[in-house]
Amino acid sequence: MIVVSNTTPLIGLATIQRFDLLKQLFGEIHIAEAVYAEAVVRGHEEGGAKREVSTATWIKSIRVQDRLAVDVLLDEMDLGEAETIVLAREIGADWVLMDEKRGRRKLAELELKKVGTLGILLKAKRTGLLSTIRSDIEQLRQRGFSISQDVIDAVLRQANEIPL
Question: What is the per-residue burial (b if ≥16 Cβ within 10 Å, else e) of 128-160?
Fold first, then answer.
């Protein structure tokens, strides 16, 4: 399975000490150079994604080839999202890990499968890696992740946990 990740799921899962779920669920993960730069070079959360991404041997940073496609997408989204989408197309990704609405809309237009941070937690619960996800979702919110209550409620219903 080929998986490409944007920055936010990496940061989110590292922030709540669930970064290991990525390797357990997906094995190898590919990231664009802009995502590496966002998470590691310009990353500010010591001990979080900066350390995790830079030391994970199962995360492969790849240079995007089609710079014109990236430039076109920059009218709609930031560099990390644009490079993630172009990289996913270039390497034939089965899944793209992304939370940002603009990026997710573009992935849907391109018919690329996507999953966000909460979807990753839900998948981890469904596969038995986690017994509950409520506290992880609460931690994400406490650490500044913008998640609507409707989305939280829907995910908790899917996880068979009572909504917050």
Answer: eebeebbebbeebeeeebebeeeebeebbeebe
